[in-house]
Amino acid sequence: MDYAGFLRAADAGQTPPVALLHGPEPFLLDDAVAHLSRALCPDPSALDLAREILDAGAAGVEAVVQSALMLPWVGSRRLVVARGAGGLSARQGEPLLAYLESPNPSTALLLLADDTLEPSHWLVRALPPAAVIPVAPPVGRQLVAWLRARAEADGFELAEEAAALLVELSGDDLTQLRGDVEKAALAGGPVNRRVGVAEVRAVVGAHRLHGIFELTRALSRRDAPAALSLLESLLNGGEDPLGVLAMLAREVRAAWQAAEGLRRGRSAEEIARALRRPPAAAAALVERARTLPPGAPARQLRRCWEAERRLKLGGAPRPELSLLIADLCAV
Fold first, then answer.
1. How far apart are CA 286 and CA 163, in angstroms?
2. Distances 34 to 41, 81, 145, 194 between C-alpha atoms, Å
3. What is the pLDDT of residues 270-302, one digit of tens each?
């Protein structure tokens, strides 16, 4: 089953008892969770009773299995999401292997791995091929087509030229691209749903690119004063705090991917291809990853997730993002 097929099955509530989604794009993983959540629990007010999301590494595999064994409180099936499943060793996963022999039919267990797993990985080998879904980020023309389809699903009409320009100006971060479509639509008026080149240019321009580029450079140098000053400029310019956070998380995730690649013995060329960055930028990222202490990229990524959670719970954007940047520069 491919990713699109999984989404169709999720929308129909017909996913297998256990499924593994693996790939480096968190937006697509989160979108799969959202599709399955809506199918299994159409009432958002009951979602906390129908779904549990766990970090497999922090909570432990036993907690994931115990949650999967619970009977549903509402509806006919319960959703259990285990993030970070790809980082578990085969020994850590023994309780899960036992569960796979007789999974609870009233639970949909969704295992998420935020990296592409090798065919030899124990999880890939433990599950039926139809239950292992690679989640490859769209690239090139696929990205433009994906963005137009996503905009249509969100109720916008995005012209192909406008989608291509957005990708050129904003990069390949799917969360950022989706947010820019919404902002571009607002540039045409409060009820506007059509986004063309003019609307895109109204909200995304060279000044924004320069600010974001300089902020990522300051983070690479661990220059906290410069990074905090650039953050203030971006927020004063009307940049969406969650969009800034998405950009920070993208850079941290890229550093984590580079560090993981080095840890697994991959060459700099292989890592550069996986990062989908220009050669010079990828080489700089690999060199930066070499200087990071063991475990630092993973801690930084968890810190970004914590900041996202706090912002979505109503935390003040400037203090939360300022503390995040200070922490990222302190590693």
1. 30
2. 10, 11, 21, 25
3. 787 777 666 667 777 788 888 888 888 888 989
